[in-house]
Specification:
157 residues; Purple Acid Phosphatase, chain A, domain 2; three-stranded parallel sheet; 10 strands; globular
């Protein structure tokens, strides 16, 4: 996968933070709630822990764009970063979503909400690919909301 960029902070909870640098993932666990940290050159604060018992865990992800060949491109604008798979590699959305699914599975959530843009262009093939990955991983825990990319071809799902 080609990319230009630095380490990204992708998840912050009351006791953990997850960083990505390309395909390398680093989890910092057992952090203190509501505490400032600096890791990998990034300043962040863990979330405060609410009073009471934990009742459920809900994971969300959005803009998973099955069928997309590049990520980060807006029309003909060359600014980025623009991510794409190299020849012979898995398509970018497959790699990206495999990482997201693995991270979500580690949370063992009660529900998973995928919020919009499940596909790049709303084709039946792209919806099938989304279902294969997300329904296969989360079954009846999965809830989805369609986005503008999912309606490009007028499907009624």
């Amino acid at each position: 996968m080609t990319s230009v960029g630095a380490t990204e902070l992708t998840t912050v909870a009351d006791n953990l933070a997850v960083f990505h640098h390309g395909q390398h993932v680093v989890r910092h666990e057992n952090l203190q709630p509501d505490t400032a940290y600096t890791e990998h050159g990034i300043d962040f604060r863990t979330l405060p822990r609410p009073d009471g018992k934990l009742l459920s865990v809900i994971a969300t992800v959005n803009d998973v764009h099955f069928g997309e060949t590049e990520c980060g491109r807006i029309d003909d604008n060359p600014l980025g970063p623009i991510l794409s798979a190299l020849p012979g590699e898995q398509p970018y959305p497959i790699t990206m979503n495999a990482g997201a699914i693995a991270e979500i599975k580690e949370l063992n959530p009660n529900a998973v909400l995928v919020k919009g843009d499940l596909t790049e262009a709303g084709t039946d093939e792209q919806f099938a690919e989304f279902r294969e990955h997300y329904e296969g991983a989360f079954a009846d825990k999965l809830f989805v909301a369609r986005g503008n990319h999912d309606a490009y071809r007028g499907q009624n799902e």
